[in-house]
Amino acid sequence: MSGLDNLYREVIMEHYKNPRNKGLIEDSKYKLFRIKNPSCGDDITIQTYAEDGIIKDCRQMGHGCSISMASASILTEIMVGKKVEEAKEIAETYLNMIANKEFNKDIDLEEATVFSGVKDFPARIKCASIAWVAFKDTLE
Ligand code: ZN
Fold first, then answer.
1. Could you tell me the distance, in angstroms and rounded to a whole number, from the CA of residue 39 to the centre of ligand 1?
2. Tens-digit pLDDT profile for residues 98-117
């Protein structure tokens, strides 16, 4: 994580220590997707509940490095209340940003912008992406 902006690192550590929306809900209306990242030991499950095209709830569970855990925590905070189509667009934009691909700068990534520096650390890109890939899969 050295090299990441200090403020960004603080936000990541804060979410790592105090994860938001942690713990899964036992309810069949929630869609669930789990992804593991063997190279780092990250194991994340994302759960979403959408109704009438709106994401009503988003939960996360798992263990792993600070980047993977913080990115899951921030994801859940951003997505609750979003339209499903808007949420997919945000996730796509975020994944392009951290992979150092072209991304739509008009999309507001909110607190997830703290991961913009991850593109300079290829080994950590997967850590920062798995929660978001799992999230997209819950919407399919
Ligand atoms: Zn990791």
1. 8
2. 999 999 999 999 999 999 99
* C-alpha radius of gyration, the chain, whole number: 14
Angle, in degrees to the nearest 10, between helices 6-17 and 66-79? 80
* Residues by chain with Cβ below 5 Å of ion ligand 1: 40, 42, 65, 68, 127
* Cα-to-centroid distance, 76 and ligand 1 (Å): 18
State which residues of the chain have pLDDT below 50: none
Nearest to 114 by CA among 56, 68, 71: 71
Output the CA 48–ligand 1 centroid distance in Å.
Answer: 22
Domains along the sequence of the chain with CATH: 3-138 (3.90.1010.10)
Distance CA(109)–CA(90), nearest Å, equals 6
